[in-house]
Design goal:
The structure holds 2 protein chains of 2 kinds.
Chain A lengths: L1 H19 L8 H9 L4 E5 L2 E4 L1 E6 L2 E6 L16 E4 L2 E4 L13 E3 L4 H26 L8 H21 L7 H19 L10 H18 L2 H8 L9 H44 L5 H38 L10
Antiparallel strand pairs in A: 1-2, 3-4, 3-7, 5-6
Chain B lengths: L7 H136 L3 H17 L1
Organism (chain B): Pontibacter chinhatensis
Family (chain B): Belongs to the ATPase B chain family.
Keywords (chain B): ATP synthesis, Cell membrane, CF(0), Coiled coil, Hydrogen ion transport, Ion transport, Membrane, Transmembrane, Transmembrane helix, Transport
């Protein structure tokens, strides 16, 4: 198993470096790293093992669906296809000669990219695992948990007791589905992102934007009288300060999910960048003697990343629960918690 | 800048897929799991409280038993005491009766002995009297065969009478 991983890893890095070389054959670590943490229209599992993912475009209301393999010729060089071409990792409209058009309006890209494919894989995994567990609970509700159920049960109970109950209070139950889903979604995808060939899904700002946005919407929709009163007329603040306080509070509503979005994105992306940089050292110094040090540091970082994967999932869930708790708080001294 | 520019495609897919997963897991996984956990917790809680109740009941029962035992012990002591008292009194009465009987019998014996003794003494007296008379008669007969002796005797009697 370990050997398999090492093998996979070496394949993976080789693939990366093969692509990251510039025209004159010089290694460009920045390009390699950017390529690795960014989205892609193909999925490289290892050198030579490439999945060409479907491209879905909406061009002025018209659907265009074709395989991304059309953008590559036999020599794996980029070629235009059907008036579209890949330009710096994005699909653009091109003219007959293959030059990007000045007018790109009306083109929307809904392709099943590497990240979207990885998203499908991860949610399929989640659905399978948790349906299996749910089946166990349905069939033997009162027996002791066993197998995979006994691994996840303490985590579920921890989220319920330490995150939801502790921060939301008596109304915690209706937030449980979201908190559990978001926790396991982030955790699973963080771990899948660490796998060789895995996509950097939770390190993509679009994903964290959506998650933070859902947290924001749930917070706003569950905000009670106290919550809104606290925003439009903060208790204990003179009325003449309202023109300052209200904008500040409104910005405060947005900074909370914004911090959620950036924290998850930055933590996961930074972890990937560090590991990739450590490997790049070998190629920057063009010496195999750097490899032991690089590998040792990478292994250390990998363990740290395993911890960060869990930690970030926990923090996102915990902060979401705290925001929900602030929105549904009942007592009058709402400012105690700020 | 590339990194921090969210792509519309991924936003769309992430929103759709995440909401779908949220719905599916919420309905088919989290709900049964949370319910089962709640159910198990409450059943454990019930079992624990039932055990606690049983323990308390046991304690009450034990206390009751002890009370009953103490009562029984007291009763037993009382009965024993009464029995001992009764036995003692019976023995006492019997002793007394025996003593009385003994005393009575001794008294009777003494009385009859006294009677016998008296009868015996009377008989001896009577015998002695008749013997004395016989001896006196014999002596007198022998004495009074002589005239002088008769005289002397008569005189002595007279003297005695005078003196009286």
């Amino acid at each position: 198993m370990k050997r398999l991983f090492v093998l996979l890893f070496s394949f993976l890095t080789l693939t990366a470096f093969a692509e990251a070389a510039s025209e004159d054959g010089k290694f460009e670590p920045g390009a390699m790293i950017t390529h690795h943490i960014a989205d892609d229209y193909t999925w490289h599992f290892a050198d030579g093992v490439v999945a060409y993912l479907p491209v879905i475009l909406v061009d002025n209301g018209e659907f265009q669906v074709f395989s991304s393999s059309n953008f590559y010729n036999e020599a794996h060089e980029l070629v235009p296809y059907n008036g579209y071409a890949l330009d710096h990792g994005h699909i653009v409209k091109v003219d007959a000669s293959g030059e990007p058009l000045a007018d790109q309006a009306g083109l929307y890209d809904f392709s099943i990219t590497k990240n979207v494919a990885s998203l499908f894989v991860s949610v399929a995994l989640m659905l399978v695992i948790f349906f299996v567990i749910a089946g166990r609970y349905k069939n033997n509700a009162k027996t002791a948990p066993r197998g995979i159920q006994s691994f996840f049960e303490p985590i579920i109970i921890f989220i319920r007791d330490e995150i939801a109950k502790a921060n939301i209070g008596p109304k915690y139950e209706r937030y449980m589905p979201y908190l559990l889903t978001v926790f396991f979604f982030i955790w699973f995808n963080n771990l899948l992102g660490l796998m060789p060939g895995g996509a950097n899904l939770t390190g993509n700002i679009a994903v964290t934007l959506v998650l933070a946005g859902i947290t924001l919407l749930i917070t706003l929709f569950s905000g009670n009288k106290n919550y809104w009163k606290h925003i439009v007329a903060t208790p204990g603040v003179p009325t003449w300060l309202a023109p300052i306080m209200i904008p500040v509070e409104l910005i405060g509503i947005l900074t909370k999910p914004f911090s959620l979005m950036v924290r998850l994105f930055a933590n996961i992306t930074a972890g990937h960048i560090i590991i990739l940089s450590l490997f790049s050292l070998i190629f920057i110094f063009e010496s195999i003697s750097v490899a032991p040090l690089s590998v040792a540091f990478s292994i250390f970082m990998m363990f740290l990343e395993l911890f960060v994967a869990l930690l970030q999932a926990y923090i996102f869930t915990l902060l979401s629960a705290m925001y929900f708790g602030g929105a549904v708080e009942e007592h009058d001294h709402a400012d105690e918690h700020h | 800048m590339e990194l921090v520019t969210p792509g519309i495609g991924l936003i769309f897919w992430q929103t759709v897929v995440f909401l779908l997963v949220l719905f599916l897991l919420g309905k088919f996984a989290w709900k049964p799991i949370m319910n089962a956990l709640q159910e198990r917790e409450s059943s454990i809680e019930n079992a624990l409280s039932a055990a606690e109740k049983a323990k308390l009941e046991m304690q009450a029962l034990k206390a009751d038993n002890e009370k009953l035992l103490a009562e029984a012990r007291l009763e037993r002591d009382k009965i024993l005491k009464e029995a001992t008292d009764a036995a003692n009194s019976i023995v006492e009465t019997a002793k007394q009766k025996a003593n009385e009987e003994g005393a009575r019998m001794i008294e009777q014996a003494r009385e009859s002995i006294e009677n016998e003794k008296r009868a015996a003494i009377t008989e001896v007296k009577n015998m002695a009297a008749s013997l004395s008379l016989e001896i006196a008669e014999q002596i007198l007969r022998k004495e009074l065969s002589d005239k002088n002796a008769q005289q002397a005797l008569a005189q002595e009697y007279i003297r005695e009478v005078t003196l009286n």
